[in-house]
Amino acid sequence: MTFMSKPPIGTKTKTGEKCPESGVWKVDDLYEYTTAPIAKGNIMPPYKGKAVTWVLKSYA
Description:
This protein is mainly beta. It has no helices and four strands.
């Protein structure tokens, strides 16, 4: 049996990419503190109409 490890907290992904892990994701921006719960496999959304980088803050 093979166990797949979860991506570590702090993993980054961008708008338009598939979410690699279910959890709470934060916009990677010094001036914004917006979080969103996103499920594994969903497409990472834009923020305020723009492509952004998302950072995994906690697991679901």
